[in-house]
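User: For my dataset I need records formatted as: sequence, then structure tokens, nothing else. Please produce one.
Assistant:
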Amino acid sequence: NPKELVMQKAQDDAFVTIVEKGYERTGLNDWHTKNFFYLERGPYTIVSAMTENKDTASVVINRQVIDLFNPRLPVLNKKVIPPGEQAFLYDLRRVNDQKTPAVLCAAARIYKEERFEKSYSFQAKSPTKTINAMRILLPIKPLQIEVSSSVENKAAEFEYEWDENSHTLLLQFQNRSEGVDVKLSW
């Protein structure tokens, strides 16, 4: 039972010894432990740097990622995770099609996507009175950004920031449960 391995300090030592000996029987002699958990699934990378190990090194991710734990969804070229901290990242190198516009991450569900030669539009739905932050992959910097209420068709306030290096747009606005329409043109 895995629970038995973690309820008391050093209870897992016998289990780790069994795993280490099994590893050595395969003929591989470079067994060593690390101070972190690391998982990749699709475009996501999850890292948890632990404090329970003698190794106190930070985990360093040296590639372009979006920090999903940061509400501003920054694009980083390097992410350092010190012991005792976790990271949830969107790995931009794992985007299959770098030329096709797409919402990569958002605080909303995305509906009614339409892609044309020089525009990309969609509807975002999320609880009213919450702030939406999203990162959108685009082929080039948009010349025009339109954000409006899906029901009233009334222009909505928004903030944006273009990241030329990743070709992504950070777009923020007030969510509406009935939907917010977004149109980006270049």
